[in-house]
Amino acid sequence: MKRYIFILFFFATLFPFAAHAGSELPYIAPSVPTSPQAAAFKMYGDVAVNPAMGVPDISIPLFNIEHHGYQLPLSLKYNPTPFHPGYNYDVFGHGWALSVSSCISRSIECMPDETTGFKLDTDQFGKSYRNFTEATMNRLNLKYDLFTATLPDGSSFDFVIRIKYDGKLEYVVSGGRDVKITHVADASKIYSFKVVDEQGIEYSFDGADTTFAGPGCTITPYGTAYVSWQLTSIRLPHSAELITFAYGKSISSNYGRQQVEPAVRFHHIYEVNGDPDRFDVTFQTYTQQHAYQMKLLTSIAYGSTTINIDYQDGSDSEHYNYAKAINIRDNGTLIRKINLEQHQGILHYHGSGNLPFSTLDKITLLGSNGITSETYQCGYTSSSASFGGTDHWGNLNYRSDIHNVGCLNLFVGFDVSRAASSTYVVDVPKDGDDLSPLDKVRISNSYANTRTPSSAEAHCVLNKLTYPTGGYTEFHFENHEFFTFTDYDGDYIHNKKRRIKTQATGFRIYEIVNYTAEGVRSDSKHYCYGQTDYDANGGIGGRYFHTGAGEPTLDPTIQTYMTYQSSEPIPMSVLNMVLGLDPSGQYRSFNYNPFMSYDPSAGLIAAKWEWECTFSAFNFQRLLNGRPAVVYPEVTVYYLKDGATTYTPENCNGKTVYQYDIYEAMQYDTAFFEKPQYFNNVLSYVGEKYRYNLLKEQTDYMSDGQEYKLKRRETLIWHPSGASVEGWEYSNRYGTLSFVPQTATLGDFYTFTYQLLGHSLLYQRDITIYDESETGITETEQYNYLSGNRMLKKKHVAGKLQQETNWEYPKLSQTGTTTDIIRKMVEKHIIAPVLTKKQSNSDGYEREFGEFPTQSGDTLILPARLYQKCYATNRFHSEILAYSPNGNPREVISRDNLHTVYLWGYGDRYPIAEIKNATLAQVEAAVSSIFGMTSSALAQNSLPDAAKLKALRKHTSLSKAQVTVFTHLPLIGVSSVTDPTGKTLYYEYDELGRLKRNYYYENNIMQESEKRVLQEYDYHYRNQ
Q1: Cis peptide before 569 (omega within 30 of 0)
Q2: Checking phi first, is residue 256 left (phi over 0); if not, alpha (psi -120 to 50) or beta?
Q3: 549: which residues sit within 8 A by CB, 6+ positions away?
Q4: Dihedral sign of CA atoms 818, 822, 823, 827 in order
Q5: DSSP E strand stretches across 825-888
Q6: In 315-433, alpha helices (H)
Q7: pLDDT tens, position by position, 258-293
């Protein structure tokens, strides 16, 4: 029997980290991100795992939760996460999270939506601006909070709650999901959520994580408003038994000082009747503080099974804690113990002191005897971390001076040397690319780029995983890379073709190497990003050297660091001034300073004008808004031969090229689909999260030793669709406050923006298989969908052959009559089960559902009859006459009218008998006679009597029946099977639940001399 470690080569997003500037900066609505724990859970949703982002999802399987047909794998999942200021989630080790961790999280964009009844305060726009102070403006709700639901099955979706025009609540959901969401709230907080998915499975979430004020965070904007709600129960549509999740511990993560960022403000004002040349440069330092109180998962319970998580600190509430063991029990008996050995590293950065962080070193799966074990060991690039500041994206780096805004140059319409009160703004000599006559300055006194992100080695990233067999995998990570408009000297590059390559925060995989237990290299994969130099440069350059760069979701430039406002008219646009463009916005020479070369008496300019602009990393991070730093349009995976280091066909067995749809066509160029754009004078973007990670082509090549040969190509066409969610950004259209007229209203200070919540559905798939001569044969499939991503129709074309398949699902009829059972299915939101599948050759099937009563008085909606379709005729296939209270079939009639009855036991979890050629009534008579109870009562027995089960075959009411009897070891496997002849096969397991042997006794004489072993398994792990 083999044990597997699953390494899925997918990719993950960065955690959200929204910005919140102080009052001295231009007004920005306060924003509170979700908690670090919820952010860690969000990493493992389906949007976060795709090759377009360069980060593998590494999973270690621990256990499989199985509850009446519902499967929930329990595993530890790793994501290489850079350190950021403040608390870094490390309950299961830095970068690790438990797969079943599920929550609804949100970022509070302005005010918590529940405080305004889930409506925006646009009704205030008609009021006089003079009636509002900055404090009252900060309490306006002008953006909807964005909620993210991460379900335990790994799927995720975003949603917004808002009031429609008719006054009713509306949930706008992304991902094409047709889920039913409800919540309980008052004007102070949202207490809970319920989500019912398309299968009718109900997930309940209760309030968990909140912000709070503590030693590391002196302010909390919204008191105890929840930023996440943790999963508390799962209710299956066919069972009254819940899977419950308990959170008996909490941590208040008040460690350390939060992110500190400088900001520099340039200001210029002109008045004819006053001082005509007033300007100033001011410098401020701001601190962003967010601390959280987070509930920790302590147990999962279902049926007679409990999974308990033990923590290092046993108290209910601590400032810091981490998991040390997971215990799995059934009916109180220990089945498995999982020890999590973690060591404590030290994280230090400017102003923080020494902060602890936990690193997961070893995962030991112990059997019930506490001796037999499987062990996984983890190695990391380092065991402690020390940093100086933060990079552009807000993660920690080696920046030694936190007072430098960044190595970014701009042009200013006055002599900064006469105005700057700080040594952190310096004049910069011009070069031949500078066409503007204005003053050129840098908002840093260092020529080095102090915002360069730190390497994977500095952030304690996983680099080795050793398996129980002694074999191991080495992971090699590197920083993301992208093409930027900022050159090495801090100048803005005006020609897109001259962009340079630079590093970004976060890490991408570039090599995965597997070794045997003896240390012999067995295979390796190398990941190369971007096109080859040959393809990128029009046939010039190496065919096996790649650009290595992707596209930034937001390029850190002087423009994306800036907010500005200006009066109208003004001698020159502030944006054109800063970028070194001429007054008309063109990159060309001009020989005068518009701010100093004008004659107000000639009527060319207003008698008074004013502008100001502010530069800060917080502005950049606000606009980034938690998005990944880089996405890749193309990724190539090379499968290297042993010892090979280059990517030529001689050194590789083959390669796979992935291409992603990340661009949208513009008039003269292409751009990333979430490109920054101005709404009035506010730089923002239209969010289209559902367009990430869309694979448009995958091409597989095999190497013949001399060249790469085409073997398979898959081309995908997607149809995206989004619903608009409106919002409003602060934007003073009058410029600075001194230009605001007395008649101004509040609405004059806001600009309409919007985001799109939607989904991308696969419309067409073309698969071409190539022969030795690279001649291909293509098959095409086209798809149509209903809501909830349910497939309605598939058309398959292969040469001259065509086949169409159609599906039908439960729905309310718009014209005719809806049957009672379908109406009840829709009411319970059981809309995903297929009712009918039809193919163009008339094959297919049809299912009828029915209501089945339980002893508790409830009814279950489950399949009742199955018909096989053949040439447009329904042919009866099978019928289920009765179910147990947990949806297990009890009596089935086959196509040949044979009745089969199933008896269940161990709390209605496992089948204990299959009785063919007997009705349920006949079996009930036998069970009553032998066990003295009904079959329903027998199902609740935690340990059925095997001898009595075997006696069923001799009962007179079952004289013509064939009885097969089963016994089980709960959570492990079947322990014996007795066939209708009375012969019993036994299955023996070790303490880890691995099958050791199966055997029988000759003539059922249970003596060692009569034992006949059929198969036997030995497990040899290294050092065992």
Answers
A1: yes
A2: left
A3: 481, 482, 483, 501, 529, 530
A4: negative
A5: 836-839, 844-853, 859-870, 873-883
A6: none
A7: 788 899 999 998 887 766 678 899 998 888 777 788
Answer for the pair 627, 554: CB distance below 8 angstroms, yes or no: yes
Residue with tokens 């990340």: 662
**pLDDT value at position 44?**
40
User: Which tokens in the block code for residue 806?
Assistant: 């159609």
d(CA 53, CA 695): 12
First to last CA, the chain: 17
3-state secondary structure 717-772: EEEEEEEEEEEEEECCCCCCHHHCCCCCEHHHHEEEEEEEEEEEEEEEEEEEEECC
The CB density around residue 895, as the number of other CB atoms within 10 Å, is 13
Q: Which amino acid is at 96?
A: W
What are 707-758's pLDDT values in tens digits?
999 999 999 999 998 899 999 998 888 877 778 888 999 999 999 999 999 9
Over the stretch 934-978, which tens digit does the pLDDT of each residue have?
Answer: 999 999 998 999 999 999 999 999 999 999 999 999 999 999 999
For 843, what's the count of Cα atoms within 13 Å in the CB-facing half-sphere?
3
Question: If you write DSSP's letter for every residue of 240-266 in order, what string do you get?
Answer: SPPEEEE--EEEEE--S--EEEEEEEE
| 8 Å CB contact between 109 and 727 | yes
Q: 956 burial class (0-12, 13-18, 19+ CB within 10 angstroms)?
A: exposed
Amino acid at 170: E
As a whole number of angstroms, the longest Cα–Cα distance in the chain is: 118
User: Alpha-carbon distance 585 to 472, whole Å?
Assistant: 57
| 82 class by beta-carbon count within 10 Å (0-12 exposed, 13-18 middle, 19+ buried) | buried
SS (H, E, C) 543-580: CCCECCCEEECCCCCCCCCEEEEECCCCCCCHHHHHHC
Let me know: does 196 contact 70? Beta carbons within 8 Å.
no
Structure tokens, 359: 């690193």
> What is the 8-class DSSP label of residue 688?
B
Of 404, 443, 436, which Cα lies nearest the Cα of 420?
Answer: 443
Task: Return phi, psi of residue 673, to 5°.
Answer: -65, -20
Alpha-carbon span 82 to 79, nearest angstrom: 10
Instruction: Give CA angle at 366 (365, 371), nearest 5°.
Output: 140
Q: What share of the chain is helix, strand, coil (3-state, %, to 5)?
A: 10, 45, 40
Tokens at residue 444, please? 């840093």
